[in-house]
Amino acid sequence: MAKIVVEKSQPLKGTVRVSGAKNSVLPILAASLLATEKCILEDVPPLRDVDVICEVLTSLGADVKRINREQIEIMSNQIDNFEAPYELVRKMRASFLVMGPLLARMGKARISMPGGCAIGTRPIDLHLKGFKALGAEITLGHGFVEAKADKLIGSKIYLDFPSVGATENIMMAAVLAEGQTIIENAAEEPEITDLANFLNEMGAQIKGAGTDTIKIMGVEKMVGATHTVIPDRVEAGTYMVAAAMTGGNVLVDNVEAEHLKPVIAKLREMDVEIFEEGNGLRVIASGRPKPADIKTLPYPGFPTDMQAQFMALLSIAKGTSVVIETVFENRFMHVSELKRMGVDIKIEGRSAIIEGQEKLTGAPVKATDLRAGAALILAGLVSEGRTEVTNIEHIERGYVDIEKKLRGLGANIYREESQDSQK
Ligand SMILES: CC(=O)N[C@H]1[C@@H](OP(=O)(O)OP(=O)(O)OC[C@H]2O[C@@H](n3ccc(=O)[nH]c3=O)[C@H](O)[C@@H]2O)O[C@H](CO)[C@@H](O)[C@@H]1O
Ligand SMILES: C=C(OP(=O)(O)O)C(=O)O
Known about the structure:
Elements: E1 3-7, E2 13-17, H1 22-31, E3 38-42, H2 48-59, E4 63-68, E5 71-75, E6 83-84, H3 86-89, H4 99-106, E7 108-112, H5 125-133, E8 137-141, E9 144-148, E10 156-158, H6 164-174, E11 180-184, H7 190-201, E12 205-207, E13 213-217, E14 226-228, H8 233-246, E15 249-253, H9 261-269, E16 273-277, E17 280-284, E18 294-295, H10 307-314, E19 320-324, H11 334-339, E20 344-348, E21 351-355, E22 360-361, E23 364-366, H12 370-381, E24 383-384, E25 386-390, H13 393-398, H14 402-408, E26 412-416, H15 419-422
Parallel strand pairs: 2-15, 3-14, 6-7, 10-11, 18-19, 22-24, 23-25
Antiparallel strand pairs: 1-25, 1-26, 3-5, 4-5, 7-9, 8-9, 11-13, 12-13, 15-17, 16-17, 19-21, 20-21
Helix pairs in contact: 1-2, 1-7, 4-6, 5-6, 6-7, 8-10, 8-12, 10-12
Bound molecules: uridine-diphosphate-N-acetylglucosamine and phosphoenolpyruvate.
Uridine-diphosphate-N-acetylglucosamine binds at residues 23, 26, 94, 120, 122-127, 161, 163-166, 187, 191, 304-305, 327-328.
Active site: 117
Subcellular location: Cytoplasm
Pathway: Cell wall biogenesis; peptidoglycan biosynthesis
């Protein structure tokens, strides 16, 4: 298997362009199943997860064409299968997002249960609660969830937690339901708004996306649309942290500053300077940052998807910081790997106490999940000697050309193919 090798790097300098958002494009690709006409998506990040959801769409009968590296065309007029198999869903949990569109379009869907992953058990009860409220009959068995409905009827659904995936799945099922659906305590993430915008471009009638109450008036059919995916706020945040850690001066280009508010506020609190410049954010830092306390929360709170990267940054802060993870019950897998690099962290339940160090040391480490992997690369940029990150398939799920983009900023980083993978 390939690995990413990082060596202590000079302060990063230059411009890095952020790709389209993974967490937007996955539900948007699932939503393209709702249209009987061609959909074109622009700024699609060329990622492993995108390949997987495209495989799922193809297996359902959609015709998916890559026009170029960042543009995809989907024709879903001949969907002839309503089952997403275990082999695909196990590769990526977000495959479960085809359930809502399939149920709306075909009146039935059979999807392998996604199961948990390194960051938590990640149940799907809220998705199912929403489908049931719309009149679907749900059966579970043999590792599959089956949903059936002769007709979906609009309904009022209160989510116990503002789940991103449940909000998306329910929204996609409700667009073709009869009458009005209201989702209360809905997730407010920018990716929800991006999906709602795409659905509205396809003919849906959705109001309130981006707030905690989303109203969907069902329509008879969905048409084709062309849509540009929003920039990836987590990828942007990761490069902002890279600039901050190395005392660099970097323009992180193609960002939506509004989506990065909690990240910008936290970096400023740590004495990192940030200025808006065109469509980008200039990040300037020098010396070790000030410590800070972080609590992850649903948007507009501090994103759990930036927790691991900030932990890497706090590990070199001048003092003690506390990080509380409230969204996922097990999102501290990176801690034991960071410790191998000399980071001083204690875990107490859902809190991590980090004593900032003057010096970290490179080590062989493994990426336990996507953002954990990013955090290890970031720590590697400021560690003495060589850091070798293995299990990089996790990183490749969500970062486009991470080593090339960082190298473009002057980082000492490269991908090393192992003997085995060269055979
Ligand atoms: C592909 C994608 O967009 N992934 C993002 C999405 O994941 P995802 O959509 O899976 O995250 P959710 O918002 O649904 O999960 C948040 C919390 O709710 C719980 N929960 C969720 C659904 C449910 O039916 N029951 C339940 O209890 C989960 O276990 C978790 O503890 O939002 C997360 C929270 O911002 C991000 O970290 C992920 O990067
Ligand atoms: C947790 C993440 O993604 P997923 O929901 O696809 O696992 C992430 O993007 O950090």
